[in-house]
Description:
Radius of gyration: 26 Å
Strand content: 5-15%
Number of strands: 6
Amino acid sequence: xxxxxxxxxxxxxxxxxxxxxxxxxxxxxxxxxxxxxxxxxxxxxxxxxxxxxxxxxxxxxxxxxxxxxxxxxxxxxxxxxxxxxxxxxxxxxxxxxxxxxxxxxxxxxxxxxxxxxxxxxxxxxxxxxxxxxxxxxxxxxxxxxxxxxxxxxxxxxxxxxxxxxxxxxxxxxxxxxxxxxxxxxxxxxxxxxxxxxxxxxxxxxxxxxxxxxxxxxxxxxxxxxxxxxxxxxxxxxxxxxxxxxxxxxxxxxxxxxxxxxxxxxxxxxxxxxxxxxxxxxxxxxxxxxxxxxxxxxxxxxxxxxxxxxxxxxxxxxxxxxxxxxxxxxxxxxxxxxxxxxxxxxxxxxxxxxxxxxxxxxxxxxxxxxxxxxxxxxxxxxxxxxxxxxxxxxxxxxxxxxxxxxxxxxxxxxxxxxxxxxxxxxxxxxxxxxxxxxxxxxxxxxxxxxxxxxxxxxxxxxxxxxxxxxxxxxxxxxxxxxxxxxxxxxxxxxxxxxxxxxxxx
Length: 504
C-alpha cells in the first residue's frame, strides 16, 4: 500500500512537472536552435526529401503551425505532445507485457528521463522517431497475437512514418530478425501470420517510396549525407569518442539508473520471452553504436531507439526488490527536469542560452540595414544562420540565398533550392562566419580589430566594430558575385569570429 501511495505521489509530481514545462516554454525568452529553424524553413516548402533528413518533421511542423501559428513555443510544444504520446504507449506496451504497476512506473520513468526532459525543449527528428518506434513495438506484438488486415496496415504506416522521421527506424527490422531467430515460439507465430507481416512490409514500402524516389532523382543525397555524418570512411580507434558517448548516456538516463543498468547487464541476456523481446530491441542497437563510437564517432542520441526497451526492462528488474531505487531515480530526474526548465524560463547569463537569445536582436540589426539601404536580398553562408534569419525575418518580404561552393558540392538543402545564381547582379547583404566563408581567404591569426591595417585593405572597404567578436565589413560596389569573390580574395588579412558583410 505504501508503495502504491508513492507511485500516486510520483504521478502527481510528474503532472505538475508537465504543467511547469508547458509554462516555462511559453514564457521562455530563449529563441530557436539553428536545426529547429531549419526544419521550420523546410515546413514552408514541403517536399518528399531534404538534404540531411527525411521529410516527416517538415510535414508535422507545417500541420501544427497552420493550426496554432508560428510562435516559438508552438514549435517546441510539438516535442512535448509527442513525448507525452510516447510515454503513454510505453505504459500500454508495458501493461501488455507485464502488469499495471510496472506499466505506470515505466511510463513515468521514460517521461522523466533527463534526456527526454532536455529534448522536450527542442523539436527534433528523434522526438518523432521514438513515438513511431514505440508504437510499432506495440503493434508488432499485437498484430502477431491477434492478426488482422487493419492492424497490419496501421503497423506498416507506423513503420513507414518512423522511417520518414529518421532512417534509424531501419534498426527495427534488424532487431525483429534477431528476435525471430532467438525466440522460437514467436518465430512460429510470425511465420504462421506471414501473409499479414508481408502485407505490413508492402504498406511500409509504399509509405517510404516517395522519399526513395526523391533521393534517386537527387543523387541519393540524403543517404550520402547520412553516410558522411557517420564518418564510416574515417575508421580508427578513438577511446575519447567512446567515453564521450558513454558520458552522454549517463546524462540521458541519469546516473542512478545507468549504474544499475551496468550492474544488471547479465540479466539482459535471457531467453525468457518478455526480457528477450525488449533486449532484442535495445541491446543490438547499443552494441552497434558503441562499436561505432570506438571506430569513428557517435552522438549520444544515436542510440535513442534503445531507450524504450532499456527503460522498461530496468523498471521490471528493479520494481520487485529495489522499488526505492526506481523512486529515488525518478525523484532525482524530476529535480533535474525542474532545474532545467527553471533555467529556461529565467533570464540567466549562460553562454548557450545567450546564443539562443542573441539571434532575435541580430535579425533586427539585419532588418534595419536592409531597410536603410533598400535591400531585399540576403545572402547567408551558414545554414544555421540562414534558417534563423529566415524565421525571425519571415514577415518582411526578404529573399534569402546561400552561396554555392566552388566545387558545386551540395553541403545543405538551401543550396539546392536557394543557391545564389552565378549571374546574380542585385544588391544584397552578405552574412557569414569566418570559418564557413568559402570566399574569404585568411592569413593572420589575430582577431582583434586593432590588428587590422586599414592601409593594406582595398580603399572601398569600411570596417566597423560592433562588439568584441562581431564586425561589419562594407564592400562594394560590385556588379556581380564574381566581382565579390575577387573582392574577398583581395582581403587577406581579416580573420574574425563573426563577420557581417554588406554590399553597398
